[in-house]
Amino acid sequence: MKNIIRTFSFALTAGVLALSLSSCGEKFLEEVKRDSMSIDYLKQPEGLQTMANSLYSEFNYFFSNESSYAYTNYGTDEFMVAGDNSNGMWNDYDARLGSIVTPTVNSNTQSITTFWDTLYQWIARANVIINTGDEVLKNVSYKDEVMGTAYFVRGFNYLFLTMQWGAIPLITEPINGVQREFTRQSPELVYETIISDLEKAYNMLPSDAKLATKNYLTKYAAAHYLAKAHLWRASEINDSWNSAKKSSDLEAVIRYADVVINAHPLTANYEDLFGNFTAYDTGITETNTEIVLAAGNTDSDVNYRKSHWGLALFTAWYQSFPLMKRDVAGAREYQRMKTTPSYAYMIYDLQNDSRFWKSFKTTYAVNDCFTNAKKGATTYTCGDGSTITAKDYFPNDDATYLSAMYIINRTEYGQKFTKAEVNTAKAPAGASMTRKDYYTGKYIPTIMALYIYDTDDSAGKVVGTSMQPDYETLHAPLSKYLDGAVNANNRGDGFRDGILARSAEDYFFKAEALIRQNKIEEGLKALDDLRKRAQYKAGEARDNYVDGGQAYAWNTYKPNLKGFTANSAFYPRNSYFYSIGGWDQSDAYRASVNAQPSTLPTLSLSAIPAEDQYVINKLGYTSDYDKALCILLNEKSREMYGEFIRWMDLARTKTLEKRLVFNDQAYASKLTDITGHTADVNGKDYASSQFGGSFNANKHYYRPIPQTFLDNITKDGKALTADEKAAMQNPGYSK
Q1: pTM over 0.90
Q2: At what angle do helices 610-619 and 624-640 cross, to 10 degrees?
């Protein structure tokens, strides 16, 4: 806690970059170098303006390190640990997830204190502005902008803190000198402060919605988080005290959500949110109308860009696959998060909902054959018995030929791929070469399937899966954050904007508020616009694929890149027809499928989609409310998978425990794959050490208060006793 206490007496020091902004309509955050500053600078309007502009830097925190996914994506139904267990305790809920410094797996392990410390540091800056601004800024035109920014950041940070920890210290004034006397305030009081701060921001910040695409705070960002705060206060996590506020909270949710929806219309094409990335700042993914708040860049020079670790955190292993190597388009494989097979691959209508195919990467291109003499000389026996030499069969490495493919062949689609035809090892070494790519007519080197059969005839039975539940690296990875425009090889981070809020979520806020008002059918229908956008349009090729890796084709740094860059692993088609059916049909058949629009029905309890019924049955829901909320949470995954919000949604609705049934590592006493097997297709048991199975509903709906905080604070000038520390700690975490 020492660092936090020091930060409470914040002062500008030498070397800080002052960001000069005269009005929100001017050029975004021009950087001005100041070699020295003192606390007296904050007594001038320019000083507070500089500090307010510096608050923008905080938003990148949620994308620039590993703690972001640990707090938001791990330990949910959406993700489990992939090949790297740096922060597995956040997923598994094992004994390492405690209040003391987290035991280090490696240098990437995140301490429990990281998120806590960082948010309080930014609150300290906001407090300086809020408590001095009325006097210092009274004669300047930009007072509202500066004050609104500070109120927004304080409310924003306290919202994240209470969502994670519940009762927290509430500091609303600057702290001069060292102060060690702190107590935790109830969530009830914290929410009052959050909502008050965000209301002030709503009334002070600019009303031009277009400024959001330039990474400015506007009143609509405040409206978005007001809707979120009111909804969170009305949720099950707060049921012990929130009854007096529920009715008015739900009305406020709808009111503020409508404000955002009206100001920020949905972008027409789902792929324009993430997939159609080609360049920084100007591409559609960073300028679409749906963006409400994004962590953006401060300068056109890449050296000043903020980092986005989503580039590498969601990736699956692909280097060393037959005829492949790591490259810029495919990204570095940090392998932190693995898509949960029994949830992600089961909740989408794979035939009609384009969002799955536009959110996950299922194919890679041959990129290390023609340029690698050793690999190029390799010979393979193909499915028809012929023998080929790689460099003769695949005469270039320019993303022309399909190299590796994940087939999401749910049983209802009838696509049977056998053990002899697909990869069954955790790191494919030998090529499959058993099925042909219908587009090029070439055999595919590596095939992995969700369901592996013993035979491909009508009698064929499921014997396993390529996508296993232990800490392994094979899965169709989330592709939303790939970045082929980076300036160096082997990067763990990219430079794309990080989207914190988009108006699609406001549709969910509104729908959930209506469901909670017992207007269930109206609430589910409120999601119609999202589902309509998710449908394939007439003439849209269902096997067309884009992700941010394609930006490699336009990469301005390409001439200077060395190493993992010679070619591109990006392949412009997905495995739709292999998964759904039609890969072995004629081109005319596939063209006829592409010519037709797809249809997703309006969500309703009277006609529950099969994918939602699957989850409802798995979780055992029977009441209309539970079913409706379950459907909404499924739909939110379909729309916003991996967008750093899931843990908070499941915690506040008290659905986290039930939904961990989809995350064996955090739930099961023995790992079981999607096919019901506890061993892989070759009969080897899944590692018993790679599961948690220890989620405790009386403990894990909140995070532990950092021990460093408890050790540094005092009561009546004395260090806390063990009993006093236990009383300050969240239940279940005391030593």
Answers
A1: yes
A2: 120
